[in-house]
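Our preliminary data section would be incomplete without showing what the modeling component actually yields. Below, a chain of 137 amino acids is followed by its predicted structure, encoded as tokens that our downstream tools consume directly.
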Amino acid sequence: MTTIAECFAGLKTVCASVEGVNAYTTGDDVVSAPAAVVSLETVDISSDLDGTITAEFTVALLIDRTHPDQFDVLLEMVEPASGLSIIAAFDADPTLGGLVAEAVLTSVGQFGTISYAGREHYGAILSGSIIGTTEVD
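Predicted structure:
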């Protein structure tokens, strides 16, 4: 079965598939914007006993505060039809490369200043869920 670490890596891989967006995971000390930083928020450990994983995650979308079009770039990252869209990347690969039954983004919010790695960025937070797992060969 898929491990929690593999799910976490799969989330980062989906974000990294968006050309022009740098993907990171919580704990990375330096980020280069525009960036998507994946964090696991909660993992239902009781579900792991029967071979499934249910988890909640966030993706912090970060734009350099000095970028002249910071708000426009951020909107491109959440617009499903945009080339920079993290949402479109999840729609294109909802199983994280076959690792899970489904990973879905459920909301976007907290538009504004986000501090990360000692710097302030303009950004937003995407929230989502991982539902179940599939077998890994």
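The first helix runs from residue 4 to 16. The CA atoms of residues 14 and 57 lie 13 Å apart. Preliminary results of this kind motivate Aim 1 of the renewal.
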